[in-house]
């Protein structure tokens, strides 16, 4: 089902469902809306580890959204942060800024957020492995733009750009995502 009008929803819990834990695709559900999504290349796991290619199972807050200013500011009630060319996300389990936003260049391993492929034109930060941050339990879990054909991610939830923008337009602050397997 697609969105008809961007009416705001008062309390939001996004549900991600699949038919089996190893599935690389699923559906994001919010109220009456059901949108196809890509998941991690190794499916959904309760015990996620850094680099395992899995989407973590559980209930997590949606913290804020990054967006590329040259791709257009999305409508959102979630806090929005304009991305910079120097935006990064630390994925080095031994670094003090593990699983946090950093400025590039960064002395430890960090993912570049400003990408040429459009996958991070809009990125919602999922509050996974943050309080407390456990070294090696996984980092950089986002909802972001999907590759063509909804090909698998490295552990994130990815939607088509239009679906992600429409979802952001109706999500209130303090929304959560529940990833089921």
Helix content: under 10%
**Over the alpha carbons, how many angstroms does the gyration radius reach?**
15 Å
Number of helices: 1
Mean pLDDT reading: 93
Overall spatial form:
globular
Q: What is the end-to-end distance?
A: 21 Å
How many individual β-strands? 14
Which class in CATH terms? Mainly Beta
- Number of individual domains: 1
Q: How much of the sequence is in beta strands?
A: 25-35%
Question: Which architecture does the CATH hierarchy give at level 2?
Answer: Beta Barrel
**Biggest sheet statistics:** 9 strands, mixed
Low-confidence stretches: 1-10
Q: Any chance you could write out the topology, listing elements then pairs?
A:
Layout: E1 13-17, E2 25-30, E3 33-38, E4 44-45, E5 55-56, E6 58-67, E7 80-82, E8 87-90, E9 101-103, E10 110-112, E11 122-126, E12 142-145, E13 157-159, H1 161-170, E14 176-179
Parallel strand pairs: 1-14, 4-5, 6-7, 12-13
Antiparallel strand pairs: 1-2, 2-3, 6-11, 6-14, 8-9, 8-10, 11-12
